[in-house]
């Protein structure tokens, strides 16, 4: 509508919901990109992530301190996952 001159750019921005902006700020995978699904689960946060898969919080912490990108994979999250 702003491009068509029906509303100002400021009004267009004010019409956005804050949650919409939050989603745009997280990295995403291209939905059209080829992929091979190896697992499915519930995301802990929005957006895409990459890294070495680990299964314990201790290992994730150790490798993270060494500078490696890690993904903590759990059946269910728990308070012990947070160090």
Structural summary, described in words:
By secondary structure, this protein is an alpha+beta fold. It contains three helices and two strands; from the N terminus they run H-H-E-H-E. A two-stranded parallel sheet has the order 1-2. Helix 3 (57-65) links the parallel strand 1 and strand 2. The N and C termini lie far apart (47 Å).
**What are the segments in which pLDDT stays under 50 over at least 5 consecutive residues?**
none
Quantity of strands, as a count: 2
- Mean pLDDT score, rounded? 87
Q: DSSP strand (E) fraction? A: 5-15%
Report the end-to-end length measured between terminal Cα atoms: 47 Å
What are the secondary-structure elements, in order, as H or E?
Answer: HHEHE
In DSSP terms (H or I, runs of 4 or more residues), the helix count works out at: 3
Q: Give the strand order of the largest sheet, numbering strands 1, 2, ... along the chain.
A: 1-2
Q: Per the principal axes of the C-alpha atoms, what is the gross shape?
A: elongated
Work out the radius of gyration.
Answer: 19 Å
> So what's the oligomer here?
single chain
Percentage of residues in helical conformation: 25-40%
Q: Which structural class best describes the helix and strand composition?
A: alpha+beta
In short:
By secondary structure, the protein is an alpha+beta fold. It contains 3 helices and 2 strands.
Feature tags:
single chain, 83 residues, alpha+beta, two-stranded parallel ribbon, 2 strands, 27% helix, elongated
Walk me through the topology.
Layout lengths: L8 H6 L3 H7 L27 E3 L2 H9 L4 E3 L11
């Amino acid at each position: 509508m702003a491009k068509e001159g029906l509303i100002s750019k400021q009004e267009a921005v004010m019409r956005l919901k804050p949650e919409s902006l939050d989603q745009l700020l997280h990295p995403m995978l291209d939905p059209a990109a080829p992929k091979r699904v190896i697992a499915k689960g519930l995301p802990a946060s929005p957006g895409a992530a990459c890294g070495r898969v680990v299964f314990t919080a201790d290992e994730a912490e150790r490798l993270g301190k060494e500078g490696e990108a890690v993904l903590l994979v759990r059946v269910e999250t728990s308070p012990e996952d947070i160090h």
